[in-house]
Amino acid sequence: METILYSRRMTDLSQYTLSNETGICLLDCEVAFNSLTDKEQCYSHYISQASFSGGLIVLLQTSPESPGIFVLLQRVFRAQSISDLETVATQNGLTKEEFQAVLMYAAGFYCNMGNYKSFGDSKFIPNLPKEKMAKLILNSAAAAADPGGIQSLWNSVQSPMYSLEARDKELGLGEKGTTTYFSQNCDKRDGEIAQEFMNKMDLSPYNTRLFKTEDKSTSLPVYEIRLASVETAASGDIPGVKTENGLGEHQFTPADVAGPITFKVTRGDYSPLLKRVADNLNSAKEYAATENEVRMLEEYARSFTTGSLPAHKDGSRFWIKNRGPIVETYIGFIESYRDPYGVRGEFEGFAAVVNKKMSAKFASLVESAEHLLALLPWPVEYEKDKFLRPDFTSLDVLSFGGSGIPAGINIPNYDDIRQNEGFKNVSLGNVLTSGYKDTKITFLDDDDKELYIKLKLPSFEVQVGLHELLGHGSGKLFIKDEDGKFNFDQDNVKHTETEEKISSWYLPGETWDSKFSSVGSSYEECRAECVGLYLCLSSDVLKIFGHVGDSADDIIYINWLNMARAGLLALEFYSPETGAWRQAHMQARFCILRVMLEADEDFISITKTTGEDGKPDIRIKLDRTKITKVGKPAIGKYLRKLQVYKSTADVEEGKKMYDFYSDVNDNAKPHFLSLRETVLARKQPRKMFVQHHTTIQDGKVTLKNYEANSAGLIQSFVDRFSSPELDSEILALRDKDRPHF
Ligand code: ZN
Fold this sequence. Notes:
By secondary structure, the chain is α+β, with helices and mostly antiparallel strands.
């Protein structure tokens, strides 16, 4: 009994630590950066500064302890070199592996901008005993210089840094996990009430957090909706928001609740950090390439200064019009994956340089977009009235501030702008090329492995291109506006599944995110992934990317095989304890695998085997002769349903179907829960990126490179955030939040 418990605990721990073997690679942008003019380099420098300082906001959006851990790490690594610190470690009885574990923890913390994985939302703790971590920190040069300060920082973080209590293991709302988008006393119901209020007031949740307190005299809840802004004054207007809907106290009676509830709309969240963002955006203006770019930066700065989401939407409008820039950027509270309620945006910002050769391929894909959209498995009425040809470029990332770096982006996320004005796509080329090199390939046969290694990158390029452009870029939302007018022909458009007239739609104030809420992110990723799978079968698409004949067939095969395998690997991101998925894209891929399995008994096979190491293993195989006959119609049918429920705002049917395919159980073969054990035992750590650092002097920008290892990654953060004032700003923000957690 004892040993079983022990080994169980050991397995458990390995899920919550970072392996010393985690791959770290340089996000190389040197060639692209050197091709820029001095002016463009200055522009990219200030945008990078804005992005990185804004990225620190994620500390406050992740966990109560993240800000303190960040400052502690900064102070320790700033005070002495890593080799000096290693001497301290040895003197204090840490083994070499334990010291490496400290470095890996710090590197992982910096990359994720907090102690929860940006990809998977699970917590990670240092992989060495707490006592040894304490010894190292309290004997470091930082502690020698300021014993009281370091001791008190350590005291404030040591317990939460190591805690793996049920609620601490994952991000989540209420009893389900940790979040700092909500005060600790909130649950899903509070999210719903706040959403109802914000819909009514026409306030967007993207740049907000929700804190609940209690009115002692009435025992009723009081909600604070805190807007992110530099300005902290409790009164004044928010640009683009009606005065009566803005700052101050509001009484609101939600449906099914007795009596009015007090809402307070306040501002000043992350104030000092947003000041750094706005200042750098203003400095960048001087080096902007066009007047349009200047206006774009002004609107962003206005949004961050005043807390106005409408100003950010205006900035995004200028951004869409800024087509084909040499240096690209987007910045703000963008993706809602990590708000457990699915509507609040996490801060991210980037500067990237266009890669002309790859961009030419994407431009031809955009040229063919209308023709390709017609191939999708839904009637033309479900497509936007006019496809707003987006800019689609391949970029090499110079700097990405936030919790993690995606491989492609399709933004803005504002539905009204996307539907009527357009959007842009970017594929982050150097993320794909550096991140996907030489990963160990699990669960495939040897002959598949060879082809997979050869074609994974080119097939993924096709998939990312289709996913972003024609996946997220396709489909129409059916809307009834304030005047009762429909944006579709209500008499003639038929529901694709019931053949009846359309009977549901979006009402004023409702958006895809607000309607589909927590299921929305993954559902939409699933739709985009299905579009990629479905359209990669088109020879026109493959030709654009330079694949014809047998090589084109191989690309299709590897793309489908990769999706099926990803669906299996996805099990790592499912928590049986809570029944929750922790990563939107991986949940999406699991659903797709289920659809493939359901299509035909022999299309996909998943078998339990024994590996060369004698331990349980898995083989996944896909019958490539059945992709067109079996795979395509199955994915097509599923994709059409995803679209019709999305178009018609039918959250009930949509969620029902999505929950069905997301369900992980052992009821039938292939017994996913037991496969999950093997997937976990053989999982490969996700790679981390070291980014460049830029400095400016007399109008000349210098680009600094780092070694691709944990020490290099840590050094880049020490260089990037060298100011002690920044430490105080972060700690002050933490202290302001403290009563709520
Ligand atoms: Zn996507």
